[in-house]
C-alpha cells in the first residue's frame, strides 16, 4: 500500500517541478523587465531627441533618409521611429519573460540582450541556476513517460503517437501561425521551429517584435511563444529519450545475435554470451 501511494506521488512531484520552473522563468522575466526597462526609456528619449535634431538641422531630409540614419539604433531597443510614434520596446513584461525562457533553454537568438551592468550580472546567475533546472524538468518529463510504457506494443504506440502529435502541435500549427503573423514561407517557418526547439538558435529568423518592432502583434502572441518553447522542448526531450531507448535496444539485439562466440582456450568449449534482459 505504501509503495502504491509513493508511486502516485510521482505525478504531483512532476507538476510541482513544472510550476517551480514556470515561476522561476516568470520571476526572471519581471526582474529583467525592471532592470532593463529604465535604460530603454532613456534610449527612447535619446533617439527621439536625435531624430528632432536631424529634422531641424537637415530640413530637406525626408522620412526615408531619416529612417536610414537612426534605424540601427532604434531596432536595438525595439522601436519604430517612422512618423512621430514609437512602439513598445523589447523590455516589457511579456517579451522579458520570453527572453528569460530563451536564456534557461540556451536558445539565445542574440537579437536581445541585457545592456545594464545589473542586468548582465543577474543574467549570469539566472542562467547558472536556470539551465540545470530546465534540464532536470525536461529529463523528468521524458523519463516519466517512458516508465509508463513498459509493454512493447504500448511503448511502440507511445513512440508513434508522440512523434505524430508533436509534429502537428509544434511544427505544423506553429508553421501556419508564423506564416500569417511573420510573413514567412512554410519552409522558413519549419526551419525556424527546428532551430528554436533544438536550441541551436542562429537568430537569422526570430518571431515576434524582437526582430520587427514596426509590426503590431496581439497580446497573446508572446504568451503563445513562451508556451510553445517550453512544451516544444519538453516534447523534444521525450522524443530524444524515446530515440535513445530505441537505439539502446537495437544495440542490445545486435550484440546478442551478432557478437562472435569465442572458444574457451582451456576446455575448447565456446563461451556463450550471458542472457540479455530485453
From TrEMBL:
Domain Potassium channel: start-end pairs: 81-146, 167-248
Pfam families tied to this protein: Ion_trans_2
Membrane disposition: Multi-pass membrane protein
Gene3D superfamilies cross-referenced by the UniProt entry: 1.10.287.70
Name of the featured protein: Potassium channel domain-containing protein
GO process terms (BP): stabilization of membrane potential
A GO cellular-component term linked to this record: plasma membrane
InterPro entries per UniProt: 2pore_dom_K_chnl, K_chnl_dom
Record family assignment: Belongs to the two pore domain potassium channel (TC 1.A.1.8) family.
GO molecular function term, any single one: outward rectifier potassium channel activity
Key words of the record: Ion channel, Ion transport, Membrane, Potassium, Transmembrane, Transmembrane helix, Transport
UniProt subcellular location: Membrane
PANTHER family noted in UniProt: POTASSIUM CHANNEL SUBFAMILY K MEMBER 17-LIKE (PTHR11003:SF329), POTASSIUM CHANNEL, SUBFAMILY K (PTHR11003)
Segments crossing the lipid bilayer: 14-33, 90-111, 117-137, 158-177, 189-208, 220-240
